[in-house]
């Protein structure tokens, strides 16, 4: 897939005309502009091809964000707590502004506008097609706010264009913020009930824990299996967990790294979503069932 992308900035330029004019007279150092940008949650739950294309020259000017390759309808999430606002333009298609609690504004572009997987462009920029929350909603870190797509001039090439604007001002390179971001294992609003299906390899077990290298995840209720960038997830194994007899390592009293990883399918117990659980922090998820992969 070609990495050449275009993006829409006309609506944002209109909003920031005065600020941009001032920036033309005096441009502060990048470190000064980026003060106040917190450590982010990564903006999608999906396997992602990420590279630094900020500042590339495009047909409509300098590229003001980062394009990253992601599957169609991958869950798009809030990178920090804040308020969202719908937007739409000819080039950018379906767009979303997130006004973060830190004062940073984030712009998500080329969100979904399809009703089917055939790239029909018939859905418009509306809730339950493009957006997962209502216009103006307050959202929490890791909560799903939209679905990835190919609206606007990205037609036929699903990807997310993502911008970072400290203090609501001029854009800065999002790449370093994305590289150090914490990756959500799933998308949820804090406090909501969830459980997960996990596929991958058992790499360590014993002493009340099991560590999986996960490459696919499914969220319940609803949800579908999603490919993610492979990551280690350490699960707590409670008494009564349904563990296949062919996986005695999990019941061992001593934690050991397996010499040969075992392909498994697992599920977690129902729980209320916390930031730590959403990010897949060690020990935050409780194992409900695990068995060798068929």
What does this structure look like?
By secondary structure, the chain is mainly beta. It has two domains: 10-179, Glucose Permease (Domain IIA); 193-292. The protein is 10% helix and 38% strand. It has five helices and 18 strands. The strands form four sheets. Strands 1-4-11-8-7-6-9 form a seven-stranded antiparallel β-sheet, with no helix packed on it. It has a five-stranded mixed barrel with strand order 12-13-14-18-16. Strands 2-3 form a two-stranded antiparallel ribbon. Strand 6 and strand 7 (93-100) form a beta hairpin. The protein is elongated, with a radius of gyration of 21 Å. The relative contact order is 0.16.
Describe the structure in brief.
This protein has helices at 10-15, 17-25, 30-33, 175-179, 275-278, and strands at 49-50, 57-58, 61-62, 66-69, 75-77, 82-89, 93-100, 105-111, 138-139, 144-147, 159-165, 193-206, 209-220, 226-236, 242-243, 256-268, 271-272, 285-292.
In CATH, the homologous superfamily of the largest domain goes by the name Glucose Permease (Domain IIA)
SSE order in H/E notation?
HHHEEEEEEEEEEEHEEEEEEHE
Number of domains: 2
Residue share in β-strands? 35-45%
The name CATH uses for the topology of the largest domain is: Glucose Permease (Domain IIA)
N→C terminal distance: 32 Å
**Looking at the chains present, what oligomeric state does this protein adopt?**
single chain
| Class derived from helix and strand content | mainly beta
Number of helices: 5
Tally of strands: 18
CATH top level label of the largest domain = Mainly Beta
Second CATH tier, the architecture of the largest domain: Distorted Sandwich
Mean pLDDT: 89
User: What are the low-pLDDT stretches, counting only 5+ consecutive residues below 50?
Assistant: 1-30
Helix content: under 10%
């Amino acid at each position: 897939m070609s990495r050449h992308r275009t993006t829409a900035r006309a609506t944002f330029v209109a909003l920031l005309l005065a600020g941009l004019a001032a920036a033309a007279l005096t441009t502060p150092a990048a470190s000064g502009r980026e003060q106040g940008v917190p450590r982010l949650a990564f903006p999608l739950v999906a396997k992602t091809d990420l590279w630094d294309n900020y500042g590339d020259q495009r047909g409509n000017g300098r590229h003001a964000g980062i394009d990253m390759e992601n599957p169609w309808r991958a869950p798009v999430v809030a990178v920090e707590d804040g308020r969202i606002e719908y937007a739409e333009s000819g080039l950018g298609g379906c767009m979303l502004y997130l006004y973060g609690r830190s004062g940073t504004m984030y712009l998500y572009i080329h969100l979904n506008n399809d009703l089917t997987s055939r790239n029909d462009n018939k859905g418009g920029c509306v809730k339950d097609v493009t957006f997962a929350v209502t216009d103006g909603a307050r959202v929490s870190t890791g909560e799903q706010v939209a679905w990835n797509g190919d609206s606007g001039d990205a037609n036929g090439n699903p990807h997310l264009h993502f911008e970072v604007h400290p203090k609501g001002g001029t854009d800065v390179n999002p790449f370093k913020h994305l590289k150090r971001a914490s990756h959500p294992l799933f998308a949820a609003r804090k406090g909501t009930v969830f459980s997960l299906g996990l596929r991958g390899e058992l790499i360590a077990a014993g002493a009340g824990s099991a560590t999986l290298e996960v490459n696919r995840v499914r969220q319940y209720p609803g949800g579908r299996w999603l490919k993610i960038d492979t990551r280690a997830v350490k699960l707590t194994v409670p008494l009564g967990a349904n563990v296949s007899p062919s996986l005695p390592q999990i019941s061992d009293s001593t934690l050991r790294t397996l010499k040969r990883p075992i392909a498994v399918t697992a599920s977690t117990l129902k729980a209320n979503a916390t930031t730590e659980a959403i990010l897949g922090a060690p020990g935050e998820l409780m194992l409900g069932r695990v068995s060798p992969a068929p």
